[in-house]
Amino acid sequence: MIKYKILDTLRQREGMVVSGGELANRLGVSRTAVWKQILSLQSEGYQIESVPNKGYRLQKSEVYSAYEITRRLNTQIIGHPVIFLEEVDSTNTYAKKLGTNGGENGTAVVAAHQTSGKGRMERKFESPEGDGVYLSILLRPKLQVSDINSITLMTAVVVSDTVEELCGVRPSIKWTNDVYLNGKKLCGILTECSIEGESGMVEYAVVGIGTNLRQVSGDFPEEIRDIATSVFQETGVRIDRADYAAVLLQNFERYFYTQHFPQNKASFLERYRNDLFFLGQEITVVGLNGQYTAVALDIDGEGRLLVRTEDGRTNALNSGEISIRMKEK
Ligand code: BT5
After folding, report:
1. Which of 125, 134, 155, 206 to mutate to test the pocket of ligand 1 (most atoms within 8 A of CB)?
2. What is the pLDDT of residues 59-96, one digit of tens each?
3. In angstroms, what CA-CA distances link 101 with 94, 117, 143?
């Protein structure tokens, strides 16, 4: 697209003036056509200054869009395509509709803002504009439904790798689907799927990942202020959202395709285990039929959490049925 060729040229000489005539000659279009494309780029958020009688100058601009994510991507499947929405109810809901309507394997749905971001069991995931990355990946894998839980575990490792790569600090994982920094929640993962009735095979899966990148405490609603945090709040590093989305998609592809999920289960579970932050500690297991105290021992080869109850039994917990609370000290 001519527009992005103009942008590339300006970017190569960021902060310098490039004449309209040069841009027009390079691309074989009129100066008026260049000017129209510049207006369009400005409306996308690029800070391009028009310098009278000289040309155009691009200043450093942080634009969050399908183009900005895609141009950073070096993947074969994941993120092809990226669908970018300024606002949506939930990227998972949107991706599930794509799943039902023939959407492509690997499609990433990214939103700047979700009005009804979802957590597990109808819980809400706060998704304010400007500070977080909310994205869902549509997959059409040849998997049994029993493998779905492992995709969530794998994704937690993907998130940890991504945060570490971009800010140098490795987060911890709270079994099963939460990523934490300094004891507060940074990211939640929600995997949903549609099952083919007869075979029990997955028809499609949607992996939703919501990460707080740059919020400060006052940006979170009162109810979660004490439990939620962001990369910026904990490390002082301000990550560009397009950088984060692209690295996340890239790391997802590495674990899911390059390393062949689910055959690589043992290796990512090893990383997952190393990142878990409450092994050996006393926790409260909250289930549908009440709650009990136990010690978290380990996770098994299926990613189930093994706990020892007060009467000495070992229970293997599946994610769907329970949640975990750290014991108050
Ligand atoms: C999750 O559920 O944490 C899964 C969140 C998945 C969100 C992504 S965003 C893209 C995609 N589209 C969606 O609609 N969803 C996915 P759960 O483990 O059930 O945790 C929910 C709980 O986390 C809430 O009850 C709050 O206590 C807390 N919470 C809500 N918003 C939060 C936030 N922004 N940061 C940290 N904690 C939050």
Report:
1. 125
2. 999 999 999 999 999 999 999 999 999 999 999 999 99
3. 11, 21, 20
**265 Cβ below 6 A of ligand 1:** no
Q: pLDDT digit string (tens) for 107-152?
A: 999 999 999 999 998 899 999 998 999 999 999 999 998 899 999 9
Residues in contact with 92: Cβ distance below 8 Å, sequence separation at least 6, in sequence order: 118, 136, 190, 192, 206, 208
Any ligand 1 atom below 6 A from CB of 143 = no
Tell me the DSSP string of 310-321.
TTS-EEEE-GGG
Distance, CA of 232 to CA of 164 (rounded, Å): 13
pTM of the entire predicted model: 0.95
DSSP secondary structure of 10-30: HHHTTTSEE-HHHHHHHHT--
The SS3 call for residue 55 is: strand
- Give yes or no for a contact between 164 and 258, defined as CB atoms under 8 angstroms apart: no
